[in-house]
UniProtKB/TrEMBL annotation, chain A:
Keywords: Cell membrane, Membrane, Transmembrane, Transmembrane helix, Transport. Belongs to the binding-protein-dependent transport system permease family. CysTW subfamily. GO terms for cellular component: plasma membrane. Residues 345-553 form the ABC transmembrane type-1 domain. It comes from the Bacteria. PROSITE patterns: ABC_TM1. This is ABC transporter membrane spanning protein. It is a multi-pass membrane protein. The chain crosses the membrane at residues 62-82, 349-370, 377-395, 436-454, 486-505, 532-553. One of its GO terms (biological process) is transmembrane transport. Its main location: membrane. Pfam families: BPD_transp_1 (PF00528). SUPFAM superfamilies: MetI-like.
UniProtKB/TrEMBL annotation, chain B:
This is ABC polyamineopine transporter periplasmic substrate-binding protein. Keywords: Signal. Residues 1-22 form the signal peptide. It comes from the Bacteria. Pfam families: SBP_bac_8. The lineage of its organism: Bacteria, Pseudomonadati, Pseudomonadota, Alphaproteobacteria, Rhodobacterales.
Length: 565, 368
């Protein structure tokens, strides 16, 4: 490697000049104090300052030159990757969908089933989520962790609007005015608020003080008003509240029968009458309702899962990609029959290694031949190397299918020669062998090309010199030629290994069950199971593994010893 | 003040006239996403061409991304620009999209055409409306094709797959748990109606995997729909599961020595969804297209081009002959009474819950 450090440049550069100016200044300061002073440039400014300016200008110019590429890479490459990696820990959906429940669960000891307040909070959260159609999304998120949560949320979301109906009926039986949207507006809205005439109604404004005396009602009516406005684009003034708002009012009034004092006029009278009647209402508990919807709400496992995944960031995906799981009782190993990722990572590394080695073994002689034959022949051979390189990946993979299958060309020939019995044909595809053969072929050009370009630069005179000094053909090759081709092997190995570790389409097509890679699993989670968090975690691990291997490689071989020509 | 009144009355007039001039408010181009190949071709001929004839000026853009529809729709939704208007997906994907809030809910009775026999759409589609967002279009089935020249005995029951003594040779099965586990239990003596109850238990799952393990060495696992037909044509396998339409074209169009065994065929559905978050004009166009192209006659028309059964009950009597081969299509329909003596409909809800778990079990089992 040629030395291209800044000090090696012989001409003056601002960089060097600053250093020299520094030295000159120090010398001056160390000498006669009277004559000490900054060295000046021709225009009278201090030399150091003017050099600094020149340097800064130069750097800015350099930056401006690479800026388009830098921005391009940042926007189209780094940012999406960072975003994808971020998904491996991101878990905001639980807190965003069930904020009230999460809050109540903070005080839960994790034993049995949480108390009534948790169910009540769940009812409120679920009602809003069901109206916004978020509950099923949360269900499928939590179903990655605990089987059955998906249908639990779907089912509960369908029945959640009935919750509180019993109270709604009783309030309305008590005073039909409770059915009127206007009654509710008079009670809850800030005086003078109106939905307005616009296409989208004005935002709802709560009356001052309601939240203090009727906290649940205010919370749910506010949420109701919001949803009606943003989702349905209707005015809350025309809509009868959700059943659950009546339930909230019932709870508030049983807790605080004096709530009416915060109001005046008709509102106060109606509320006072309701407060008086409330103790006689027929009542149910939320936990009964939910366990009636699905018995899973009565299980510790369901609640434990919600609690375990309530934080905004989770290690759950990374644990899953290492065959562990986050359970309510802490981190546990996955059941043995579901431990797949460790196996796949090992297999991916092992097979990439095998493919890389077979590429070296097959590619080295070819590259050697290419670089040592006369131009005409070597150009012809080069086309043979490049031709498959230019052919579609799918075509080449399918061609291997035709060749390798049991009724395929290779087996037919072997049977015809008599090497293999007809009823005992070789299994060359839909297993690891198939993947290794097909991928070695596909990645071979990535090994041959860097090898060739390095070998081209090795002067033949070295080997001739070695021979003239008495080396045998082997010694001349091994001691003189081979060490000079190592940078090419290094470059080829890195290219082949890193390409193959992320390969996915060829293993999918010819790998069968034992020849697939971790990337096939990542693809499955991206496109089929939609578990992007897990896919991101697997991808992050794969990236980390590659970086570690790169570091080890640098330690052992040295990255300076890699050359593409 | 005057201006305001004027504006208000104009607005009122426009909204009144809205119903009459609905046409004017529909987008004049729409992107339809489907699976490509013969299937998309059948949709083009049966649905899109008549629609474009009836609505000149409407441009239809085709996309062939249905296989990645769920992931792509999610990505589009996150980026906030949805470029698809009507998407063809299988039922399980539709459920997933609906759960994720990525597909629009559709009220079958209000937004779809009544059946030709006057029945409400919801009755006409019946059980096939497996999700609120899904308008079924066809019933297809995963069924078994076998080489007539390579087997000594004609397989009559699904359990022939597990009987390697009577039917020696390789078989191909789909590389996923859905369908295979049900067949394994069925052939392990579990009654059809109990299968999901058994599969819900740990022992039941083990039992299914054990049954599959008896033939593990004889199975080539496929992941693309074209695999089994190809493997059968090459003689790589003696029998294998495949979509009935693919087997139809292998047998009738390519004349291969292959026959179909309909026993315990697993029904699956394919249909339309409309992505959530379209502008009103595009939504109106998409709904109009779907209403038009899922009526009784159109669904029956599609069966002229491909051997998948129409999802409406009222369409069944209208199924005619193949457009090119001129053969009667009814006997090739998975829904034909002669073929449908023993059928199996996925329990979609159940699989939505258990899919992730069983899939990792299945993959681990395969990898061992």
């Amino acid at each position: 490697m040629s030395n291209t450090g800044p000090d090696a440049i012989t001409g003056p550069t601002p960089d060097n000049a600053i250093r020299q100016a520094d030295i000159a200044e120090k010398e001056a300061a160390g000498g006669d104090a009277a004559h000490a002073g900054p060295v000046l440039a021709a225009d009278g400014t201090p030399l150091k300052q003017s050099l600094n300016r020149a340097l800064r200008r130069q750097k800015l110019r350099a930056l401006a030159l690479i800026a388009p590429l830098l921005v391009f890479i940042l926007v189209t490459f780094i940012a999406p990757i960072a975003d994808m990696l971020f998904r491996s820990v991101e878990n905001e959906i639980v807190e965003e969908t069930l904020p009230r429940t999460i809050k109540v669960l903070e005080d839960w000891d994790g034993q049995g089933v949480p108390g009534e307040p948790a169910f009540e909070a769940l009812a409120y959260d679920l009602m809003i989520a069901a109206e916004l159609k978020n509950h099923t999304r949360l269900g499928s998120r939590l179903n990655y962790e605990t089987t059955g949560v998906s249908s639990l949320f779907r089912k509960s979301g369908r029945r959640v609007d009935d919750i509180g109906e019993v109270y709604a009926d009783q309030f309305i039986a008590l005073d039909p005015a409770w059915e009127e949207p206007a009654t509710w507006i008079a009670l809850m809205a800030a005086p003078g608020w109106s939905a307005g005439e616009g296409e989208i109604p004005a935002a709802f404004e709560m009356r001052d003080g309601v939240a203090e005396v009727l906290p649940r009602t205010a919370d749910m009516y506010g949420a109701f008003a919001d949803v009606i406005r943003t989702e349905d684009e209707e005015s809350v003034a025309d809509e009868e509240p959700w059943n659950i708002v009546y339930e909230a009012l019932y709870r508030d009034l049983s807790e605080n029968p004096e709530a009416a004092i915060a109001f005046d006029g008709e509102n106060a009278a109606r509320l006072a009458a309701a407060a008086e009647a409330v103790p006689g209402f027929e009542t149910t508990t939320m936990s009964e309702i939910f366990i009636d919807i699905d018995k899973d709400w009565g299980s510790n496992n369901t609640w434990g899962t919600i609690e375990a995944f309530s934080s905004r960031y989770t290690s759950g995906y990374f644990l899953a990609s290492a065959d562990y799981q986050l359970t309510p009782d802490g981190i546990e190993r996955q059941p043995e029959d579901q431990q797949i990722y460790g196996l796949l990572f090992q297999r991916t590394l092992f097979m990439s290694m095998t493919i890389m080695i077979s590429c070296v073994l097959l590619g080295y002689p070819v590259a050697f031949l290419l670089s040592n034959l006369p131009m005409r022949t070597s150009n012809l051979l080069m086309i043979l190397v490049l031709l498959p390189f230019w052919t579609s990946l799918l075509v080449r993979t399918s061609a291997w299918k035709v060749l390798l299958q049991q009724q395929g060309v290779i087996n037919d020939i072997l049977v015809w020669i008599g090497l293999v019995a007809d009823d005992n044909r070789l299994e060359l595809i839909n297993n690891q062998t198939g993947t290794i053969i097909a991928m070695t072929h596909i990645l071979l050009p990535f090994m041959i090309l860097p090898l060739y370009s390095v070998m081209k630069t090795i002067p033949p005179s070295y080997v001739r010199a070695a021979k003239s000094l008495g080396a045998t053909d082997w010694t001349a090759f091994w001691r003189v030629y081979f060490p000079q081709s190592v940078p090419g092997i290094g470059a080829g190995c890195i290219l082949v290994f890193i390409l193959s570790i992320g390969y996915y389409i060829t293993p999918e097509l010819v790998g069968g069950t034992t020849g697939t890679f971790i990337s096939n699993r990542i693809a499955y989670h991206i496109s089929s199971s939609l578990n992007w968090g897990l896919a991101a975690a697997l991808g992050t691990i794969l990236l980390a593994v590659v970086l570690v291997l790169y570091w080890i490689y640098d330690r052992i071989v040295g990255i300076d010893n890699v050359s593409l020509g | 003040m005057k201006l305001k009144t004027l504006l208000a009355s104009t607005a009122a007039a426009t909204s009144l006239a809205g119903g009459a001039f609905a046409e004017a408010h529909m987008a004049d181009s729409m992107t339809i996403v489907s699976w490509g190949g013969a299937y998309q071709e059948s949709q083009r001929k049966a649905y899109a061409e008549p629609y474009m004839e009836a609505n000149p000026g409407v441009e239809v853009i085709w996309d062939e991304s249905s296989a990645e529809a769920v992931a792509k729709l999610r990505a589009m939704n996150e980026s906030g620009s949805i470029s698809w208007d009507v998407v063809d997906v299988v039922a399980s994907d539709a459920i997933r999209l609906c759960d994720e809030g990525l597909a629009m809910e559709i009220d079958a009775d209000e937004q779809l055409a009544k059946g030709d026999d006057g029945s409400d759409a919801s009755d006409d589609f019946g059980d096939l409306l497996v999700s609120d967002c899904f308008i079924p279009q066809i019933v297809y089935s995963t069924t078994i094709g076998y080489r007539t020249d390579m087997l000594d005995k004609k397989p009559e029951s699904i359990c022939a797959i597990f009987d390697t003594e009577t039917y020696p040779g390789k078989r191909s099965l789909e590389k996923r748990p859905i369908g295979n586990l049900e067949w394994a239990l069925l052939c392990d003596g579990v009654a059809k109606e109990d299968i999901y109850d058994v599969l819900e238990t740990e022992e039941g799952q083990d039992r299914a995997f054990e049954k599959l393990a008896t033939i593990k060495d004889d199975v080539i696992w496929w992941s693309a729909g074209a695999d089994t037909p190809q493997l059968l044509a090459d003689g790589e396998v003696v029998m294998g599961s495949a979509y009935n339409g693919r087997l139809f074209s292998l047998i009738e169009e390519q004349d291969q020595p292959v026959a179909m065994m309909w026993d315990a065929q697993v029904f699956d559905l394919d249909g339309w969804i409309i992505p959530e978050g379209l502008s009103d004009e595009r939504k109106a166009r998409a709904l109009d297209f779907i209403k038009e192209s899922t009526n009784t006659q159109k669904l029956a028309d599609q069966a002229k081009y491909i051997s998948y059964g129409p999802a409406r009950q009222s369409s069944a009597p209208l199924v005619g002959k193949h457009a090119e081969l001129g053969i009667d299509m009814a006997p090739h329909m998975p829904t034909d009474p002669a073929n449908a003596t023993n059928t199996f409909l996925y329990n979609y809800e159940w699989w939505a819950d258990y899919r992730d778990d069983l899939d990792s079990k299945f993959q681990t089992w395969l990898a061992q």
